[in-house]
Amino acid sequence: MKRFGTASAGVLVALSLAAQTVSTGDKMHGRLRAIGEKLKCQCTPCSYTVGSCNMLNCHFRDEVNAQIRPMLTAGLDETAILAKMREKYGLVVLAAPPAEGFNLLGYLMPFLALAVGLLVVRQVILRWRRPRPTPAPVSPAIDRFRDQMEKELADLE
Predict the structure, then answer these.
(1) What domains can be seen in the chain, in order of their start residue?
(2) What is the DSSP letter of 47?
(3) For the whole model, what pTM was predicted?
(4) Helical ranges in 39-139 per DSSP H
(5) From CA 93, how far away is CA 60, in angstroms rounded?
């Protein structure tokens, strides 16, 4: 019975050490993937991010991950790593462009279009609800001519 207790304790210690190693690797992989989700993959038929590119042997994903891993182990934070990637590849590598300069218009335009659309709808509804002007009363001179036309039409028949 004592042997069984010692062996099970040894197995538990080994499992806990393996779990710590896996969790540390998972932590690094998680940070690598989180940074990769903010970078657009540049391989030809791809429309994914570096973190989610599923192309077999993707040259760009592998290259970027190989560059990011040493930066993570050196202790650089996410913003510094993204800044280095931006320096190397330009703005096209960012999955979401920064909200500055002309790019700011892209972030604001949907809200501006919504506001203008709501104003147009408001104006249309107000115009529909406005009462229609009443027609001008018919003058008595027109009634006299109408009576004369009706008599002439009756004579033709």
Answers:
(1) 2-98 (1.10.8.640), 99-157 (no CATH)
(2) -
(3) 0.54
(4) 59-74, 78-89, 102-129
(5) 11
